[in-house]
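Input record, target 12 of the design panel.
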């Protein structure tokens, strides 16, 4: 299995099973950079696990993880994209996300979340 395929399988497992990045310390770089859209309550750029732990509780308060569904995973080289249908907590609203993971080998070095404006852009 190629590194890209291994990384796709990892992202499929992590998101599909609603795990947290910190559940896989061997799979992310200690200088990991995460970009969250400014339109989200927790939007911003975060560096390293300490900053991740600071903003991540707001993520858990924003999404309804009972309605958080992985749609598909795509990969090319060191980049893996996951498309997600996400319900918002205490709301009937559903949004579609594309989460971009950049790897160095088998370790995530950067995560960038994109909100899809048009369902056709994210949903299979």
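The sequence produced for target 12 reads:
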């Amino acid at each position: 299995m190629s590194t890209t395929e291994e990384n796709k399988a990892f992202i499929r497992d992590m998101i599909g099973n609603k795990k947290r990045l910190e559940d896989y310390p061997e799979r992310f770089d200690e200088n990991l950079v995460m970009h969250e859209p400014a339109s989200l309550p927790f939007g911003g750029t975060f560096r390293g696990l300490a900053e991740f732990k600071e903003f991540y509780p707001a993520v858990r308060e924003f999404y309804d993880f009972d309605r958080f569904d992985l749609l598909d995973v795509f990969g090319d080289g060191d980049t893996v994209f996951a498309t997600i249908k996400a319900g918002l907590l205490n709301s009937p609203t559903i949004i579609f996300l594309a989460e971009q993971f950049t790897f160095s080998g088998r370790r995530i070095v950067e995560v960038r979340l994109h909100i899809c404006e048009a369902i056709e852009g994210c949903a299979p």
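The CA atoms of residues 39 and 94 lie 15 Å apart.
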